[in-house]
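Hi L.,

You mentioned the student needs an example of a multi-chain input paired with its predicted structure. This one should do, with 358 residues in total across all chains.
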Amino acid sequence: MYKTAMLTKDLVAASSKPLLLSILAGGESYGYEIIQKVRELSGGQIEWSDGMLYPVLHRLERDGLIESEWKEADTGRERKYYFLSSGGRKALKTERQQWLAVHNSLCKLWKIKPASI
Amino acid sequence: MAGRSQLPVQIMEDQTRFDLNAAIDNWRNELAAQPNLAPDDRRELETHLRDAIAGFQQRGLNDEESFWLARRRVGQPPELVEEFVKTNPAAIWRERMFWMCLAIFLSNTLGSIARSVTFALMPVNGRSSFQMTMQIIIISLASLIPVILAVSLAKGKMVSQFSKLTLFVENRLRLAITAFLCVAISSSIWIMALARITRSDFPSSIMPGSTSALYPLIIALLLVWLMPPQNRKTPKTPKRA
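Structure written out for the whole complex:
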């Protein structure tokens, strides 16, 4: 098996929004957990740098797509948890349609079975 | 050392060679030294660092290894701040204010020099209305130089010539020296002009003349304070003999 390459910088930047919204659609989460989750989901192909995640989260928060709250975790320490707002849910729907449109077009071109919607 | 609990928290407290809490404190201080980072951002990054350390500890790494790996993952404070600044509206406005103050400062300095020179060149008494008009035009044009320069820069002209000028404002110290030199030069010229206009001796013009330096001095201080974080293009050379 050939080694799969890491995602390019541009793709990492473009895909961060749908990924974050989708992860938070599954329930509230915090920075460290989100990065672990992305690494796990992509099998290590998508590696977010820890420092880059927060500016993206803060931008989504300013755009009203997510909200945040400091809460005490099981460990006793406080963490900043992020969760999806109603605006975020709508934005996720749009993102989903757009990414699937790209995905399906590429699938047709490459003659592979598109993912079920 | 048999029987000692191997819980990560215990190790943290018992560590003698590497003090994890002190290391985190140091890291926090380093982060606090960075301007443009809100306290809430710092707190969030610290919880992230602690989470990352705990993650490495769970995988069996010791405190020191965990700390350094987590630190590397989170990123070096100056680079981190650069990422944060890109999305921080306060920092964006800070930079805009810097450029605004720079324009005000240059406009004021050049206008003041033009005023002093025209006053010095024209007859003290009985100036004609033509001379007064010329004086106002010259002062206005001199004050407009920064705007004209900015327009030419925006049009992509003379960019290479201007990039040489950054030598004077490369870092906070150089900017401070340049700005205060500008204030000193323009005020001394004004004091000399004032001495001529009022026909008084030089020392007695120092007091009223130097008060006109108050406004540019405040702007200069604002400039130095507002200066955006240094460019990383010019790496610091380690001073080791």
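You could point out the following to them. Residues 86-110 of chain A form the longest helix (25 residues). The longest strand of chain A covers residues 66-72.

Best wishes,
N.
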